[in-house]
UniProtKB/TrEMBL annotation:
Its cofactor is Mg(2+). It catalyses: tRNA(Lys) + L-lysine + ATP = L-lysyl-tRNA(Lys) + AMP + diphosphate. This is Lysine--tRNA ligase. It is an enzyme of class 6 (ligase). Gene3D superfamilies: Bira Bifunctional Protein, Domain 2 (3.30.930.10), Nucleic acid-binding proteins (2.40.50.140). Residues 181-496 form the Aminoacyl-transfer RNA synthetases class-II family profile domain.
Length: 567
């Protein structure tokens, strides 16, 4: 491992701390009794406090220093005075440990009392501090010049997503997004629980990937010697619970789809699905708009949210537009009664790329996606989808060519999908078989399996039911004004990190390293040179290269020199 100069220095400080008898990674509890926010919200002059956090800045003034500690709720200023911390003659704790061996990013705990500085800042007068964790890598902290200009900010998206732990430390505003994400989940749970519905859990590993049209991740169960699929949706299991007698069930589901990655799609994502017996999609529309109005208010304190250049209002009620009317409005083409070939030709005439593997439903979906959905900015229910697009949805009560389905569009994106659920087992089998034929034609998003157990469950009877699915990641994107899904996931999927090229050592360098390793990584310089038995030129070249690579260092110990292996 090739270390930077800063990393080498920090490791040296680590050794010096241990030499002073200080454990840089103590195991014992540190008795924190407050936080930075609690101190500021209920400031009391002279109050004794115990806090802990990262050291984020230091202004060294010799016998005294001001520092900033960052904990989970913000930052608080701390005042370190040498003679207060070190009352006796021994000033090591301040002069050496704090001033010389402590770095930005280190975790420390402080004890002291609160006071107000001459400029009115709330501060802790430190009476004692404890080392809690030594950091071996420097944080990429931004720098501000005298004019207030900020430099070296940690803003590269790939680095931020890959090292979210660093992002959260140096960009505190990022934490606010995830705090709101948790508020959203809590609000939705509260809304459902107050309505009397029960949160459940269903399998992630499934023998048949059902409930959606998507490519699954495939794994293998060794003991059973069978393939298993990572869940693409939890719909069919939740419906089984409705068959079993529950009136309403919901689940926050981790789903996995082996498809592309972009700013709005991640292979692993979170969806919420809820199913309520004896309801239909008209009831579910009203339920959904009331739900989202409540959630927006709980997350942001208002029904309004800014997303890019748009101000979106989640106040109910929402507009309702049929799929047929939407396509007619934005393309002039009426899909009513049209054949698959007619729709294909119309799509080609609109400049939409289509192929022969696409069935009627997929063609309509492409037309709507390309020409219509981007026009719906305010929350809008798109209703009454063609039957070919909705294999799990009940036929429309007034038009058997349509289904009782809606999608909720916001800023041109779908965030919710709901049905009057199909509960006719014979009709359901025919829909599954039609999807299977599309799959055999080459449509890789069509259903490739018939879930016989689910059909068996329907044959035992499922009451009229309405179901709703919401993409939680996309919803929180809208509520926090983040155009990228990676911004609302702690650890989004990333391409493999490019590894730094392996350091290739010359034969002479390898020889010296091996000798040091045989002697517990430390040797007298003269003895090492004797055992290496290299010519003067090769010795000098090898030792210089090892030092440049950060693999060795030479220290003076009395009259001798000691070589230490630092890798």
């Amino acid at each position: 491992m090739q270390l930077s100069e800063q990393e080498i220095i920090r490791r040296e400080k680590l050794s010096k701390l241990r030499a002073l008898g200080i454990n840089p990674y103590p195991a014992n509890l540190f008795p924190v009794n407050t936080t930075s926010k609690q101190i500021k919200d209920a400031f009391e002059e002279g109050k004794k406090v115990v806090v802990a956090g990262r050291l984020m800045s230091v202004r060294d003034q010799g016998k005294a220093s001001f520092a900033e500690l960052q904990d989970s709720e913000g930052r608080i200023q701390a005042y370190f005075n040498r003679d207060v911390i070190c009352e006796g003659e021994d000033k090591t704790l301040y002069n050496t440990v704090f001033r010389k061996l402590t770095d930005l990013g280190d975790f420390i705990g402080v004890e002291g009392e609160l006071f107000t500085t001459q400029v009115g800042a709330k501060c802790i007068r430190v009476s004692n501090f404890t080392f809690l964790s030594k950091t071996l890598r420097p944080l990429p902290l931004p720098k501000t010049d005298a004019d207030g200009n900020i430099y070296d900010e940690f803003v590269d998206p790939e680095l931020r997503y890959r090292m979210r732990y660093v992002d959260l430390v140096v960009n505190p505003q990022v934490k606010d997004v995830f705090m709101k994400r948790t508020k959203l989940f809590n609000a939705m749970r509260t809304f459902f629980n107050n309505a009397g519905y029960m949160e459940v859990e269903t399998p992630i590993l499934q023998s048949i990937p059902g409930g959606a049209a998507a490519r699954p991740f495939i794994t293998h169960h060794n003991s059973l010697d069978i393939p298993l699929y990572m869940r693409i949706a939890n719909e069919l299991y939740l419906k089984r619970l409705i068959v079993g007698g529950f009136d309403g069930v919901y689940e926050f589901s981790k789903n996995f789809r082996n498809e592309g990655m972009d700013r709005t799609h991640n292979p692993e994502f979170t969806a919420m699905e809820i199913y309520v017996a004896y309801k239909d999609y008209n009831w579910m529309m009203e339920f959904t708009e009331n739900l989202l109005e409540y959630c927006a208010t709980q997350v942001n304190g208002t029904t309004e949210a800014i997303f890019g250049e748009h101000k979106v209002n989640f106040k109910s009620p929402y507009a309702r537009v049929t799929m047929t009317d939407a396509i007619k409005q934005f393309t002039g083409f009426d899909i009513t009664g049209k054949t698959e070939d007619e729709i294909r030709e119309a799509a080609k005439g609109m400049g939409i790329e289509v192929d022969d593997t696409m069935g009627k439903g997929k063609l309509i979906d492409e037309i709507f996606g390309e020409k219509c959905e981007g026009n719906f900015i305010q929350p809008t229910f798109i209703t009454d989808y063609p039957k070919e697009m909705s294999p799990l949805c009940k036929s429309h009560r007034d038009n058997p060519e349509l289904t009782e389905r809606f999608e909720l569009m916001v800023c041109g994106k779908e965030i919710a999908n709901a049905y009057s659920e199909l509960n006719d087992p014979i009709d359901q089998r025919e829909r599954f078989e039609a999807q299977l034929k599309l799959s055999e034609r080459g449509d890789d998003e069509a259903g490739q399996f018939i879930d016989e157990d689910f059909l068996r469950a329907l044959e035992y009877g499922m009451p009229p039911t309405s179901g709703l699915g919401i993409g939680m990641d996309r919803l929180i994107m809208f509520l926090t004004n983040n155009p990228s899904i990676q911004e609302v996931l702690f650890f989004p999927q990333m391409r493999p990190e490019k590894k730094a090229p392996q350091l290739e050592l010359e034969a002479e360098e390898k020889l010296i390293v091996e000798l040091l390793q045989k002697n517990e990584n430390t040797m007298d310089l003269a003895e090492l040179k004797t055992q290496a038995a290299l010519s003067g030129k090769k010795w000098d070249k090898a030792m210089k290269a090892l030092a440049q690579h950060g693999l060795t260092k030479v220290a003076v110990n009395g009259e001798s020199k000691i070589v230490e292996l630092t890798m």
